[in-house]
Specification:
NAD; proton-translocating NAD(P)+ transhydrogenase activity; elongated; mainly alpha; NADP binding; transmembrane; 5 helices; about 130 residues
């Protein structure tokens, strides 16, 4: 049975979505901050790979020399499709990285001790003066 590359990649994508769903929902709430940090790192790797696809001229090669092109007659279409998908990946991963760091910062701020309010400071100062 000869499967097309699109079929194989679709199966891999669906399986990774299922595994990711169960991994995220299986994590205890105490480990959500480290999980966010790891997903930010993975998004950073995806951004680098997507930028390599979007701007292959930097590497001195086109997309088809780096990736297998199943249909050489559609090389131009394949390159532009890969560049559009790569650009979308760059934008979405950049949003994910920014949001992930913002949420991680908020989560870590919850563990910092809170500064006493002005009324508490005044009461402590008055008590110390007695």
């Amino acid at each position: 049975m000869d499967l097309s590359p699109l079929t194989i990649l679709t199966v891999i994508f669906v399986l990774s979505c299922v595994v990711g769903y169960f991994v995220v929902w299986g994590v205890t709430p105490a480990l959500h901050t480290p999980l966010m940090a790891v997903t930010n790192a993975i998004s950073g790797i995806v951004v680098v790979a997507a930028m390599m696809v979007v701007g292959p001229d930097i590497l001195g090669a086109d997309v088809c020399s780096a990736l297998p092109c199943p249909y050489p007659e559609y090389t131009g279409l394949f390159q532009w499709t890969a560049r559009i998908i790569g650009f979308i990946a760059v934008v979405l991963c950049a949003i994910n990285i920014f949001g992930g760091f913002a949420i991680t910062g908020r989560m870590l701020a919850m563990f910092k001790p809170k500064a006493p309010s002005a009324a508490v400071k005044a009461a402590q100062h008055a008590k110390a003066g007695e």
